[in-house]
Amino acid sequence: MAVTYGMGQYRMKRGTPYITKLNGENSITPQFIEVQTNTYTYKDVYFNLGNETIQYGHTYYLELTLPRHVQYTSDIDIKICGTANGTIDITNQYQNIKQIIVPNSLVSTNFYQDVLLYEYNSKTEVGLVTNATDNTVGHVFKNNNNYFLITKNGKPQLEKYQPLKVIESWKLKEMDEDTITYNMIFSPIFDSINYSYLYLEIDRNNDWNTSIEYIENDKTYKGLFIDINNAKLDIYEVNNLLNNDTCIPQSSLNHIGVWGHPEMYLAINGEQIQIGKNGFYELDDFNITNLGIVVKDENIDRFSIDYEFAT
Q: 253 vs 46, which has greater pLDDT?
């Protein structure tokens, strides 16, 4: 007997809990954990979910905000961890979620100024080589291999002087953003562990980690650590739309088209999907058993789903 198909559409409904926040309205605050190696002691960070647990068979969306170090870039492994002896178990009960890179808050790429050493009025002077729109007296700008010295009224004046040496000098410029937020969807893969913690493990394989040293409460630590005063975590459970309330069939759904805004987060069978720039995502000939959409702001995160199912 040939398989026949039906079609349907679901539109976002205001007031529907598409995601459910763990730990109520407040963000989850971080704590330090000491990590001891054969040679050094480091400090990593974890978040205690309290009475909540991350469970197998469920899908979750997290927003993690971290401070950016003024100088160093960090590689961080995000893990969910279980419990042993009443505390976090980072050794035996864990699952890797994702590795992220936290850039520093300074940038130097393609941002530099030449320093010009020159002779003027029988004196050796130093000037910064800038563009002609920089009208700072004492600066120099270059045009067609000629150097112009800005000498008065903030206007370029061609002066007779002897360039002695030009030195390329890199300059660091501080960026406005001192924190960065990461968003991701994940699902536990082990049904034997109830995860109660989210753990941030900084990669310690960089040589400069051992060159950083600080003392706290008469104890010496090595390497970078995360400023917990500027870190926060929000975790949401992504609710499955394939249920009786939405009337989207769960057992026979095999084709969907989702309309939403670009970069909107979807969860299909526990996997993260983001809608592209055209505002549309389509999946065909695939057994879909779990479909969730991250809706945090009903005025922005609006969507509709066209679907096909076997009858």
A: 46
Domain boundary residue, one of 184, 204, 237:
237
In this structure, are 66 and 101 located in the same domain?
Answer: yes
pTM of the entire predicted model: 0.76
Site of tokens 């980072």: 90
- Co-location of 246 and 272 in the same domain: yes
Residue 183: name the closest of 305, 19, 41 by CA: 19
DSSP secondary structure string for all residues of 226-263: --GGG-EEEEEEEPPS-STTTT--SSSEEEEEEE--TT
Are both 101 and 182 inside the same structural domain? yes
Q: Same structural domain for residues 91 and 182?
A: yes
Return the CATH number at 85.
2.60.120
**Three-class SS state of 210:** helix
Tally of CB atoms within 10 A around 146: 9
Report the alpha-carbon angle 272-67-203, nearest 5: 70
Enumerate residues 6+ apart whose C-beta is below 8 A from 7: 306, 307, 308, 309
Give the number of residues written for the chain.
Answer: 311
Handedness of CA 34, 37, 41, 42 (dihedral sign): negative
Among all chains, which residue has been given the structure tokens 């009337």?
A: 247
Alpha-carbon span 234 to 200, nearest angstrom: 14
| Phi, psi for residue 207 in degrees, rounded to 5 | -60, -35
For residues 124 and 164, is the Cβ–Cβ distance under 8 A? yes
Domain extent for 39: 21-105+176-237
Q: Are residues 223 and 81 in the same domain?
A: yes
- 140-199 confidence digits (pLDDT tens): 666 666 666 666 555 545 454 455 555 444 444 444 468 899 999 999 999 999 999 999
pLDDT band at residue 36 under the 50/70/90 scheme? confident
